[in-house]
Amino acid sequence: MATDEIQSWAYDEPIRSPFALPRGALGRLAGRLMLWLNDPGELVTLIGKQGSVLEVGCGPGGLLRHIDADRVCGIDPSPDMLQLAARHNRGRDIDLRLGTAADTGHPDRSFDVVVSVNNVAMWPDLEAGVRELRRVTRPRGRLLIAWHSATGSSPIARKNSLAEEKLARIAQALGEPTRRHELRNLTVFERRCPG
Ligand SMILES: C[S@@+](CC[C@H](N)C(=O)[O-])C[C@H]1O[C@@H](n2cnc3c(N)ncnc32)[C@H](O)[C@@H]1O
């Protein structure tokens, strides 16, 4: 079964994993595992109740299902993941579209919160992704970038965690002031956009 190759800013070698750009039967299996393994609880609390939220790289839609907002949108480059996300969120009014961190397809200043979970290390260009996410965040809105935590309770999180120097690059790309939160299995960088 074919697995696409991704050249990312975070690794020297290209990534070949059905979790990175899930497609086909193996990709859908990876998507179901994500739904089973990921616990969105603490992140949902950090996001809070909002007017509008965009999840970038939403995968199978596990977090989307729990977001409490008047307008909930998700983008992902994988049509298979968008299909799973639609199925997992059946009955909810959610706007799902093809897109990437560098090209979300949404207008300027559209969202109160823009969140990315476990995909920042798959972006080809970190700075281009952060620029785009800031573009679609409203003034005073928040941008949250979460990645597997090195101190997580899950062995999967620990195995996939990034070196501190890579995490520092994420914080630097977001700019000051950026807060860092250590959740159970996620390290989250939060930047409030200027007013
Ligand atoms: C490990 S999954 C995480 C999915 C979901 N956020 C979750 O936590 O369950 C990574 C997701 O990132 C998506 N992805 C890959 N490259 C991307 C990019 N450049 N921009 C946005 N999303 C990307 C993949 O299609 C996949 O759905």
Automatic annotation (TrEMBL):
Entry-linked InterPro entries: Methyltransf_11, Methyltransf_Superfamily, SAM-dependent_MTases_sf
Taxonomic superkingdom: Bacteria
Protein name (record): Methyltransferase domain-containing protein
Organism whose genome encodes this protein: Nonomuraea phyllanthi
GO biological process: methylation
Keyword terms: Methyltransferase, Transferase
SUPFAM superfamilies in the cross-refs: S-adenosyl-L-methionine-dependent methyltransferases
Pfam families: Methyltransf_11
Molecular function per GO: S-adenosylmethionine-dependent methyltransferase activity
